[in-house]
């Protein structure tokens, strides 16, 4: 039954990696939107 | 318009002549190769029972490092003197330049290997238990595999930040099957336990595939700088 | 088109939840491995998804390079058609059929080649010029994410089942590692390259990677035959109920991958628009300072 820990580890690792990637996408979107706003206001 | 081969040969002889005149870079590379061997000798016990099994790997890793040092300077001279722009507008076929550079690198890396190999034999008390002559095709094909892709990726790295880092970064993943072939082949020949034929065929296939790819795509890369 | 995204997102989450339920509670327990085998429902679909994404990247890269000139574009199209026809017919010829590894049906090989050709033309139709490159970046990045999952879940699965984290002769995991390395170097090249033609260079690298993969596979395959491998049981066919759940999991992850790719694609297009707008802006600023008679050397003007 000790091996069940590996099952949990695998599933958690999977969603952790996906979560980190999606988080980076969201962050990049945010930065781009900020840049667009700066452009719109003109420098 | 001069032929492909005469252009390639002219470029090659020019490179060799220039390199021979100022041997600084060459001497530094030779010394670096020696240092790599010594580091390995101190890191991996030559008297261990299993040393003959791992020496194949050690030798080729050492060759790989030496090759990267040599490959990094492939296009340095051309960059300094804006030669590449001249090549781009000339009607000379781009792969003539590539072939000349690749062969030049092959000669240079072979020179470094010729220095390192006897050192390994001495330090590790190597005796070849298998068919020793087979080491020659393995060495030739293996070196060409590293050099042909290395020259190509060196050109690709020219306009990147951290150019010297980019070359091994691009070269190593693609070279893995060749490295496996070289190392396993060399180990088999040294230990005499298994035949090395397949690895020689593997290296030959690798060389044919990637030499073709490099010659076909070098024009694209040259225009891209 | 954009309104479809939230709906698809919800559907995908539900699908993933359904697959999760199937994987953990519906699929039968493995006789040899116990419950830990259920890692397969994340490990294998991620692998198939990663390979599909990398394959799309390869097709996009080839088209991007080939479309540089009309002659090469035409030649590439005919070569792909030829590959499709040969690949579709060949598996049924007796001499070729014999060469196929056991378990590989001729019809599945034929269908695969048909899909390859179709994919080439579908991608060519819907993605033109720059869009091909955006597709390439997208599939490479998302592919690396899924590939990382394969490389993480693989050893996590191997440890309890085989007692070791990494088997040197494990062809599939080793080939996946090399593929991962190639595509990470692809992404690094994209990030570090300052050339105006970065996209072409990256496409060339993708072609090199594709040429490399079969060589990797065969080199490790032969290496295995000469070296004793840890006994890895589990040969033979799969319980059909397990296969059923595996396919459900794959479909769920595919729809998830599709959405992630769609997001990344839109992000990339937005990024390029912003880049262009910024370039235009600084261009206009420069011309404005010129026409005003000022020499634009001072850095303090921004």
- By secondary-structure content and strand pairing, the structural class of chain A works out as mainly alpha
Report the biggest beta sheet of chain A as strand number plus sense, adding barrel if it closes. Answer: none
Based on CA atoms alone, the radius of gyration of chain C comes out at 24 Å
Radius of gyration of chain A: 19 Å
* Straight-line distance between termini of chain A: 63 Å
> What is the helix content of chain A?
over 70%
Task: Give the termini separation of chain C.
Answer: 39 Å
- Proportion of residues in extended strands of chain A: under 5%
Helices and strands of chain C, in order, run as HHHHHHHHH
Q: What is the global morphology of chain C?
A: globular
Q: What global shape of chain A is seen?
A: rod-shaped
SS element count, helices of chain A? 1
Helix-strand topology string of chain A: H
Which spans of chain C of ≥5 residues are poorly predicted at pLDDT below 50? none
Mean pLDDT score of chain A = 89
Number of E-type strands of chain A: 0
Structural commentary:
The complex is a heterotrimer of chains A (43), B (225) and C (302). Chain A is an all-alpha fold. Chain A has one helix spanning 4-41. In chain A, 88% of the residues lie in helices and 0% in strands. Chain B has one domain. Chain B has nine helices and no strands. Chain C is mainly alpha-helical. In chain C, 77% of the residues lie in helices and 0% in strands.
């Amino acid at each position: 039954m000790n091996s069940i820990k590996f099952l949990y580890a695998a599933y958690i690792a999977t969603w952790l990696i996906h979560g980190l990637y999606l988080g980076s996408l969201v962050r990049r979107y945010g930065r781009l939107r900020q840049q667009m706003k700066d452009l719109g206001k003109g420098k | 318009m001069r032929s492909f081969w005469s252009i390639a040969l002219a470029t090659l002889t020019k490179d060799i002549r220039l390199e021979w005149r100022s041997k600084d870079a060459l001497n530094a590379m030779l010394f670096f190769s020696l240092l790599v061997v010594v580091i390995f000798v101190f890191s991996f016990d030559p008297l261990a029972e299993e040393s003959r099994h791992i020496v194949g790997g050690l030798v080729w890793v050492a060759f790989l490092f030496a090759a990267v040092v040599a490959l990094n300077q492939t296009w340095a001279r051309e960059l300094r003197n804006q030669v590449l722009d001249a090549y781009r507008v000339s009607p000379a076929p781009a792969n003539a330049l590539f072939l000349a550079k690749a062969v030049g690198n092959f000669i240079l890396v072979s020179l470094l290997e010729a220095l390192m190999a006897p050192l390994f034999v001495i330090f590790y008390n190597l005796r070849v238990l298998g068919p020793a002559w087979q080491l020659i095709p393995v060495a030739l094909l293996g070196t060409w595999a590293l050099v042909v892709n290395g020259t190509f990726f060196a050109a690709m790295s020219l306009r990147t930040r951290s150019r010297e880092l980019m070359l091994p970064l691009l070269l190593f993943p693609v070279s893995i099957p060749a490295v496996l072939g070289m190392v396993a082949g060399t180990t088999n020949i040294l230990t005499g336990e298994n035949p090395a034929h397949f690895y020689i065929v593997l290296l030959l296939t690798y060389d044919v595939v990637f030499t073709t790819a490099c010659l076909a795509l070098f024009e694209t890369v040259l225009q891209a700088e | 088109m954009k309104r479809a995204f939230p709906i698809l997102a919800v559907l995908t989450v539900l699908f993933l939840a359904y697959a999760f339920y199937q994987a953990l509670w519906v699929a039968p327990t493995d006789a040899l491995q116990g419950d830990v085998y259920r890692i397969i429902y994340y490990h294998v679909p991620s692998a198939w998804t990663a390979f599909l994404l990398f394959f799309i990247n390869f097709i996009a890269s080839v088209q991007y390079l080939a479309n540089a000139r009309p002659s090469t574009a035409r030649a590439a199209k005919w070569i792909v058609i030829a590959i499709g026809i040969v690949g579709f017919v060949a598996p049924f010829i007796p001499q070729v059929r014999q060469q196929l590894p056991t378990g590989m049906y001729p019809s599945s090989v034929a269908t695969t080649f048909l899909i390859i050709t179709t994919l080439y033309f579908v991608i060519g139709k819907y993605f033109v010029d720059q869009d091909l490159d955006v597709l390439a970046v997208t599939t490479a990045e998302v592919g690396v994410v899924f590939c990382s999952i394969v490389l993480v879940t693989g050893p996590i699965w191997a440890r309890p089942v085989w007692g070791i984290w990494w088997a040197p002769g494990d062809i599939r995991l080793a080939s996946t590692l090399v593929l991962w390395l190639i595509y990470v170097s692809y992404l690094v090249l994209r990030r570090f390259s300052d050339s105006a033609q970065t996209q072409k260079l990256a496409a060339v690298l993708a072609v090199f990677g594709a040429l490399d993969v079969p060589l990797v596979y065969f080199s490790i395959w032969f290496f295995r035959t000469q070296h004793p491998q840890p006994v890895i049981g589990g040969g033979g066919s799969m319980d059909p109920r397990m296969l059923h759940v595996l396919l459900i999991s794959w479909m769920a992850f595919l729809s998830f991958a599709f959405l992630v790719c769609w997001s990344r694609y839109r992000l990339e297009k937005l990024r390029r628009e912003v880049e262009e707008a910024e370039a235009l802006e600084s261009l206009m600023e420069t011309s404005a300072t010129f026409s005003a008679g000022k020499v634009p050397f001072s850095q303090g003007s921004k």
